Amino acid sequence: MLELDQLVKQFGGFRAVDKCSFSVQQGTITGLIGPNGAGKTTLFNLIAGAFPPTAGRIRFLGEDVTDLPSNQLFHKGLVRTFQIPHEFHRLTVLENLMLVPPAQPGESLLSNWLSWGKVRAAEQAVEARAWETLKFLELTHVANVRAGNLSGGQKKLLELGRTMMTDAKLVLLDEPAAGVNRTLLRKLEEKILILNRERGYTFILIEHDMEMIEKLCDPVVCMAEGKVLISGDFQTVRSDPRVLEAYLGESQGDAA
Ligand SMILES: Nc1ncnc2c1ncn2[C@@H]1O[C@H](COP(=O)(O)OP(=O)(O)OP(=O)(O)O)[C@@H](O)[C@H]1O
User: How many alpha carbons lie under 13 Å from residue 27 in its C-beta half-sphere?
Assistant: First the structure.
């Protein structure tokens, strides 16, 4: 589904991503791990089209998308979310969901403006989908609460809900567990699994919470210093001496 070929991102003289190659199979949940500063977020930015790579190619669903901006990737079903939830805090939870544009280029606003009946039908369909999403995420009780008043974990669920309002194929989750309490974390994990197994979403997730990685991800890709160190199943990656060394280096750095 996604192929990264020798991706490089250089900031001045510093290589944040250094010849990264791996591919993501449709239907999987790929975990992207690595110590702080390994280049994970920069790699996400490249995949999501936030900025172009210095070198290397990206293919998504068989098409070269290396230089496409994020809005075009979004319309192709590649959606990025999370590290900082991007809800509109003054709008209600329901309104936040209804504002997400559908990833369907045919449904342009202009074509809808041509017919009032079509607008109403479209709005009703969006509202129905928003309620369905709230039910799935068990958030109906906060539908009319301002999003800014949600807990951290509820905001993460809402962010996941916003991806469900699109016809996402590949979702990039940036540290979904960060700041989420244990109870909501279990719920978040359960919802991600259902979206993957039953609704066919493919995920890549950056995460420092190894319990979540172990539960959800196969394969796991470990990065360090901009490079892919190893990829494989969780146990293989976790017990690889290079991975242990990379994390040990980080904790020694922290201690210094
Ligand atoms: N815009 C930028 N300009 C210069 N350096 C940058 C820029 N963005 C990231 N970097 C550097 O690139 C390296 C990789 O950063 P990145 O945020 O991708 O790491 P990460 O693996 O996501 O780390 P963390 O787990 O702490 O979020 C870091 O050394 C960072 O300081």
Answer: 2
Q: 222 forms bridges with which residues in the sheet?
A: 33, 230
How many Å lie between the centroid of ligand 1 and the Cα of residue 39? 5
Nearest of 160, 183, 139 to residue 87 by alpha carbon: 160
For residue 40, the Cα-to-chain-centroid distance in whole angstroms is: 12
Nearest residue to 38 (alpha-carbon basis) of 172, 217, 221: 221
Please compute the mean of the pLDDT values over residues 177-194 and round it to a whole number: 87
Q: What is the ipTM of this complex?
A: 0.95
User: Is the pLDDT confidence value at 226 over 90?
Assistant: yes
**Parallel, antiparallel, or unpaired: how do β-strands 78-81 and 170-174 relate?**
parallel
List domains and CATH numbers for the chain. 2-255 (3.40.50.300)
Other Cβ atoms less than 10 A from the Cβ of 240: the count is 15
Whether 249 contacts 35, CB under 8 Å: yes
Closest approach atom of ligand 1 to CA 83: 27
Residue 175 Cα to ligand 1 middle (Å) = 14
Cβ pair 59, 7 in contact under 8 A = no
Instruction: Report d(CA 172, CA 185) in Å as an integer.
Output: 17
CA distance 35 to 32: 10
Q: Which amino acid is at 163?
A: T
For 251, the 3-state DSSP assignment is helix
Query: Can you tell me the mean pLDDT for 230-243?
Result: 93
